[in-house]
Amino acid sequence: MTDCQEDGSPDLTPMELYEKLGAQGDKVRGLKSEKAAKADIDAAVQLLLKLKVDYKKITGQDYKAGCPPNGIELNSTGPAVEDGDDQVDPWNVSTTNAKGVDYDKLIVRFGSSKIDDELISRIGRVTGQTPHRFLRRGVFFSHRDMHQVLDAYENKKSFFLYTGRGPSSEAMHVGHLIPFIFTKWLQDTFNVPLVIQLTDDEKYLWKDLTQEQCQRYAVENAKDIIALGFDVNKTFIFSDLDYMGSSPSFYRNVVKVQKHVTFNQVKGIFGFTDSDCIGKISFPAIQAAPSFSSSFPQIFNERKDLQCLIPCAIDQDPYFRMTRDVAPRIGYPKPALLHSTFFPALQGAQTKMSASDANTSIFLTDTPKQIKNKVNKHAFSGGKDTVEEHRKYGGNPDVDVSFMYLTFFLEDDEELEKMRQDYSSGALLTGELKKRLIENLQPMIAAHQERRKQVTEEMVKQFMTPRKLDFNF
Amino acid sequence: MTDCQEDGSPDLTPMELYEKLGAQGDKVRGLKSEKAAKADIDAAVQLLLKLKVDYKKITGQDYKAGCPPNGIELNSTGPAVEDGDDQVDPWNVSTTNAKGVDYDKLIVRFGSSKIDDELISRIGRVTGQTPHRFLRRGVFFSHRDMHQVLDAYENKKSFFLYTGRGPSSEAMHVGHLIPFIFTKWLQDTFNVPLVIQLTDDEKYLWKDLTQEQCQRYAVENAKDIIALGFDVNKTFIFSDLDYMGSSPSFYRNVVKVQKHVTFNQVKGIFGFTDSDCIGKISFPAIQAAPSFSSSFPQIFNERKDLQCLIPCAIDQDPYFRMTRDVAPRIGYPKPALLHSTFFPALQGAQTKMSASDANTSIFLTDTPKQIKNKVNKHAFSGGKDTVEEHRKYGGNPDVDVSFMYLTFFLEDDEELEKMRQDYSSGALLTGELKKRLIENLQPMIAAHQERRKQVTEEMVKQFMTPRKLDFNF
């Protein structure tokens, strides 16, 4: 970079220049990876350097990828993607919109596909089952290659499911159940094997926790997962800290992915910086590896060609964009994905629930009384300030957290639709809506606690032992 | 960073400014890691930014750690250290000096300690054995904490040995044997257990090889190592691609190291860049982990406190500088080290032997005839151009490769000293020196080949099976 050049981009705003720099950086990397002619690369690099000088002149700061000029400093682990006031990456989800993140925008930005009515009907036709309420109600709203999975399934080519959880504490809340409830439905409906990764190594790397703590959380979380009723003959649950050291095939796939992803790439995808530890930098390969059937030779008889379908919250997509980029280069099929929206905090859809703030969430350990108090006290209401006003103008179910929760957990479509109408018209009051939610959550959580009590250490061990699973491929 | 400031370092050369910047960067990192007062950190950062501006003014380039101002660009995997014409890092060793790298300078630069006469005598006293010729002749010339190892040993506190090899091809040459010959002597002399790491994952990451090739090379190399006579009851040889997936304890230590080393650090130590794959970036932790006894619970009964002693060529030191930095932070003892010089190529001491150029090396598979031809044809001579001149002026043993090789392999000190004198005086001709070397190498290699033939797959399996070893600690 040389200094004191004439300004060549006088009409651009700092943000426009910043974006131009990002695009030019991509172009240079593209040319280099294609091994383009040296003259072309040099010219592109020259322009890049020129833009950097211009950028510094205008902003007084050095250009840094991932650091926009408006003073927003990225924290050390993200975000890779920001749009207006929405921020979505594996470590941060936030928005200023009370309805929550704008998911249609996210589909465009992530380059995934919308789960439309046609796909939902097709899933119904292919499986002969009513599509799960999470599909009917847009909780799972986005996908990658789901039609391909269904094409193959119709031709008697099966697939396997992969989902996971980062065990950062003992306590799971109802939001954590969403991907697992849906995954269980997929397993039952398609009759396919399932692997569940507990990323205790990730939590050790990211949090101020010991490995022993992370492993204990993994086992406790496994109990809650098992309590959902997964079929032990079709389900393998594993902790990274255990399984990496129990399966040479898994480690070999991790190294394969690690050979084919550069620091530049994870910097771009996850927002890592030079100050991040090398464990974080290489971790994405560990979340990628279970997407490949050869990572589980004991389950899949050494087969390398089985397609993987990953149900997960949309914030995990960056890992699998990376995985899908690498897969063909190491001779494996790309995993398909089904993405869910986020489960809102009691305080509103601006943020995810947090396991570390007890009042933002309904925990799986909450008593009926705690549930009642939390909903009544903290669930953000879309109703009006007084009964009179509410009766007159009606409430707004789209920002009402009690209504949102019922969307997740009430099976009856008609009852839900009636509540929407009555709440909007003012016929249904916030207190009544909350009461209905409490009636729904209390027995649901109590039943979960009852099932969890039945989960023995022996059962956990069974689920977590590498072994052959039942399936017909 | 702001621009257009007044020049505040007018009297410094670019190199002085570069070094000052490096020191100031260290200071800032130090203050941050100590969580010093914000004002102190801010002041240090301000000075750093100021120096960067000055640097750019003087050199016309942005300051970049690891890129000195003289235009030397670091290649993608190093070098971490360069001094004049010597370059020494785990991937590159070269010098323009016919006597080889300047090892005294290297000691100063790496901050290690010289193996002096006192230490050599002490090893003799403590073990009751004549110190190995590699010690007597300065082949192992540098150490870290060897006195501490001996102190503990004298107090009946034992240690374990760790060395390794990167299996980049089937063919090993005599230079590759140096650390193993010495390690065997240490094992026999101190009666201690030994772990030998074969970094097949490293070779997969760095070279254009498949994992299957790297693992096959690991097994083939293991046979040559076993042929040196290691005690199977005291020696565990492992391939990373196998052992990582067979030992949760090993992986857990790898992750511990990875949590405590940043990209900035490996960039500084190994010269990694943003274009390097994440596998390379995180690999140093995998070479670090065997330094800790808890990585081998099957050998050391879960003990975490055993000291490790690593005999290796000096180019591997960067890995263990990093390891020694991390060890106390994760509750483990720092490994001690014994560093060897490089084994010269037949063409001269300017470079290491290369496994990929058959004429630079004596391979362990060479026939007596090949050995004779290679020495006669390629061994760089320190003699004069004609017999007459040689008789008159004498030869130079310090640059004569045949003499250097005899220094490594001839046990008899008196014979070696006599040859040095006779060669220097002109009494001994190059041809006679080469003849003596050939007489030494031919039976040595033939005996090695004979012993290697006796190494069965079963024996390899035995050495490479994680198991309990014999030792009294």
Determine Rg of chain A (CA atoms, Å). Answer: 24 Å
For the terminal residues of chain A, how far apart are their CA atoms?
58 Å
Shape of chain A: globular
Count all strands of chain A and give the number. Answer: 12
Tally of helical runs of chain A: 22
Q: What is the oligomer described by this structure?
A: homodimer
Indicate the proportion of strand residues of chain A.
5-15%
Low-confidence regions of chain A = 1-10, 70-81
Q: What about the largest sheet of chain A?
A: 7 strands, mixed
Describe this structure in words.
The structure is a homodimer of 473-residue chains. Chain A has 22 helices and 12 strands. In chain A, 49% of the residues lie in helices and 11% in strands. In chain A, the strands form 3 sheets. In chain A, strands 4-5-10-9-6-7-8 form a 7-stranded mixed β-sheet, sandwiched between helices. Chain A has a 3-stranded antiparallel β-sheet with strand order 1-2-3, with no helix packed on it. Chain A has a two-stranded antiparallel ribbon with strand order 11-12. With 473 residues, chain A is α/β, with parallel strands linked by helices. In chain A, helix 1 packs antiparallel against helix 2, helix 4 packs parallel to helix 6 (146-154) and helix 8 (200-206) packs across helix 9 (211-226). Mean pLDDT of chain A is 89; it is low at 1-10 and 70-81. At the A-B interface, helix 8, helix 11, helix 12 and helix 13 of A face helix 8, helix 11, helix 12 and helix 13 of B.
